[in-house]
Design brief:
Two copies of one chain form a homodimer.
Chain A (H helix, E strand, L loop, with lengths): L18 E5 L5 E6 L5 E8 L13 H8 L9 H10 L3 E6 L4 E8 L3 H13 L5 H19 L2 H13 L13 H6 L2 H11 L5 E7 L3 H11 L19 E6 L5 E8 L8 H12 L5 H9 L6 E7 L4 E9 L4 H14 L6 H18 L3 H15 L5 H9 L3 H11 L6 E6 L7 H7 L5 H4 L1
Parallel strand pairs in A: 2-6, 7-11
Antiparallel strand pairs in A: 1-2, 3-5, 3-6, 4-5, 8-10, 8-11, 9-10
Helix pairs in contact in A: 1-7, 3-8, 9-12, 9-15, 10-11, 12-14
Chain lengths: 443, 443
Amino acid sequence: MDSDSATTPGAGASLPRSVEVSILKNGMTIVTDRMEHLESAALGVWVKAGSRDEHIQEHGIAHVLEHMAFKGTSNRTAQDIAVQIENVGGDVNASTSVETTSYYARILKNDVPLAIDILSDILNNSLFDQQELNREQHVILQEIGASKDSPEDVVFDNFQQSAFYQQALGRPIMGTPETVSSFSAQDIQKYLTDHYHGPNMVLSASGNVDHDAIVKLAENRFSDFGATPAREPDTCVYTGGEAIVSKELQEAQIILGFEGRAYHARDFYASQVLSMLLGGGMSSRLFQEVREKRGLCYSVYAFHQGFSDTGLFGVHAATEDADMPELVPVILEQLRQVGEEIGQDELDRARAQIRAGLMMSLESPASRAGQIARQILLFGRPVTNEELMERLQALTVERLSDLGARLFRENVPTIAAIGPVNHVPSQAEIADRLGMQMPVAAQ
Amino acid sequence: MDSDSATTPGAGASLPRSVEVSILKNGMTIVTDRMEHLESAALGVWVKAGSRDEHIQEHGIAHVLEHMAFKGTSNRTAQDIAVQIENVGGDVNASTSVETTSYYARILKNDVPLAIDILSDILNNSLFDQQELNREQHVILQEIGASKDSPEDVVFDNFQQSAFYQQALGRPIMGTPETVSSFSAQDIQKYLTDHYHGPNMVLSASGNVDHDAIVKLAENRFSDFGATPAREPDTCVYTGGEAIVSKELQEAQIILGFEGRAYHARDFYASQVLSMLLGGGMSSRLFQEVREKRGLCYSVYAFHQGFSDTGLFGVHAATEDADMPELVPVILEQLRQVGEEIGQDELDRARAQIRAGLMMSLESPASRAGQIARQILLFGRPVTNEELMERLQALTVERLSDLGARLFRENVPTIAAIGPVNHVPSQAEIADRLGMQMPVAAQ
């Protein structure tokens, strides 16, 4: 992984005019991004802790905690939480990802204090009552069951597991029926106490909000979280792998993947641009070649996801059995070609797409609040769109094609598939087609 | 169906200040809703034509047309369309529903003329080239295949088919592999010519847009569409029905349904409120009873959908085989109870949720453009949030419980299920539990 701290936004850069940042005594960040023409606000607490922070015997506990946070506190029953926020037409929800857990609310502007009170209550004072836990474990088993019935969920879970074999970053976020059923209230409280520390937490609000008022509301309510940074998760190493599952389906879903770039890596933004011009829109190479010229798929796209110490680059496609022999070689040929030459028009278009996407996301308070929270967790401060665009402006077609020539050959590939998989090539066959040798075969 | 034209917004009511409406000579409406603080715009063409306007031998053609509109015109290749809009960071997309087809773009403010030019070009000048059609038919077959692999898609398709048995409103929007493969370029052009008429079309734009400039751009570009109203689709009658499909899945998905209310019906808004307090949020009766008190499901919710001459009220839930014997009676008991008494707090909360939802949707140009376009197609003019809230304000708990007492007993139920369905009750058993007799059993 080629890291380069110079590409991490520097602490001295200027903030967008509408953004204000305060730090509580325990290190928790309060950030607001005011949009005074709105009647509403979006706010939430983002915690730098997710499934990859779990020990093996804790598999799934970050997500169980996220559910149990809504099951009653010393001040409110589960029903009180739902009724109080919906009485004012708001809603609260939460989500757990690999490196982050977030709890957020959408409310009208006058209900910001209520939303902050509820979010702080569920994070500070949850009871984790045993009877509620039993019921919620059963609810989560059903959530896992529904996910197993979705071929897309299954192929993405298997993909991540194969890419980061036997590591926390690869394990499915929801855990297994066995692990989820095994947790006690004490286990959940311990995970919270271990990972929900001030320096790992951001309260982010956007919309019609007042920074000073929010800081005042937050000061007392979030002061009990630990002031030391929480333990960092173990470093994760991309392994690559293969998970080809035969199942009676109309379409085979495949994900072809490679090691991507960490957030702080020199080539993080180049990898984002590469995934966009390969498979980010209707004009992208994969969409044009696979769907428009050949009619092989309804859905084909590329993605790049950064983590703190690694990344994943992938191509997802779904097709019927008869088209698979043509599909994979066509995708691999597109991956090969971006290593040869990239047009200035393609780079310009990818930049325009990212720029417009950033500008449009500024128009939504929920997008703003989430974006700034993640920036603070990753980079330690908000990053302006101008800074991001400067980074993109510095990219050249040569650097992109150079990255394209390396990215798909520097490490073994990952292949995950589900459905009619007779014609899905093995990991070794894919490596061979990309002109690289599998380490095992080389020994 | 109890219709009452007095609940249809009157033509004399005032417009929101930011909204301007013009009508072209051929009857097409141009509506804009300016949000001058934005840097972007959302706009699109909404056509009052969808799958229910298809003759039986045209099943799926509305959706094929929507795809083929992006496959090349006399001015632009398919690739030109994609490249031109993405060069400026915009995107175009389209969707087909039962009664409406829409083509829309998200762009930065200076690119409004380009977006209008592209949308008018694809609707006026599409070539429906035979080779492109062959390829796109294959793409749509794969879209249908992927949908068949999604238990949720299948259960909703089966539900609609059973509720409106052997009628266009019940048929799956995407058609069947056989019908989709059968269409010629002439068939597609004929469906367009038959249904895309000025009086059935709205160009709606919101965001940083200028009404007069848009009208000027639209005038020449949309003047070739017919000036007579298109043929109205056949009246549809709710039949109710049963579609219980055994499949090896972790969870059984069920939809329990009833005849709902048409847009113009007296009880349309009451039905919307009833579905919200029954299963619209975390505080709703179904969520509280089914998930929070009993842990029977991860997902359970109610919905109400209006059409021009009928409606559908449904409850969707997913659960494992072992929980099904408890689940259905619990849902039916909740349906029975809303016919007895509804609390003022529940009505107030549902109103607050709808009001906040409306206010927040005003903050998104894409929501605004779509909402106003649909209002014009349904009611002939834009409807302000104040008017909508007045309608909700007029509702009483008595009227709602009275509706609740009728809605689930006035006609035979519909039941659709997929998965492990051993314990899913039949349509007759559900009718029996609701205290009504099936017409057939009564003979």
